[in-house]
Amino acid sequence: MDLLIFITIYILATLALTYLSYKKGISWFLTFIISLIFTPVAGFIRYQSVKPIKVYKEARYKCKRCNYYFTEPSKFCPYCEKEGHHIPLHKVYVDMT
Q1: Are residues 88 and 62 in the same domain?
Q2: For residue 56, which phi and psi values (nearest 5 degrees)?
Q3: Residue 23 — φ and ψ, nearest 5°?
Q4: DSSP string, 32-52
Q5: Are both 75 and 38 inside the same structural domain?
Q6: Which of 9, 35, 51, 82 is most buried as measured by Cβ atoms within 10 A of its Cβ?
Q7: Residues paired with residue 60 on neighbouring β-strands, in sequence order
Q8: What is the DSSP letter of 66?
Q9: pTM above 0.70, yes or no
Q10: How many CB atoms lie within 10 A of CB 76?
Q11: pLDDT 10s digit of each residue in the chain, 97 long?
Q12: Which domain holds residue 77?
């Protein structure tokens, strides 16, 4: 009976650390594996020591024909324009780290 309680607490602690890692934006799978194979204490040390990745959005301009991204705004895609096509660029936001 004591072993069953210990295993239940062990798995719940592992799942709690996995969820916290997911919410923090770090590798939840690695935290899960470390917590499961070693101990939840090792998973907690990993959770505390890793800083989350900061993601921000940056504006880019994309050509729908050649799928090339440009940082500077332009009316038409310069590469497609050389080939005689006048494809307007569309503003999109991409994730940057």
Answers
A1: yes
A2: -135, 160
A3: -65, -30
A4: HHHHHHS-HHHHHHHHHHSPP
A5: no
A6: 35
A7: 92
A8: T
A9: no
A10: 13
A11: 899 999 999 999 999 999 999 999 899 999 999 999 999 999 999 999 998 888 889 999 999 989 888 888 888 898 888 888 888 998 999 888 7
A12: 56-96
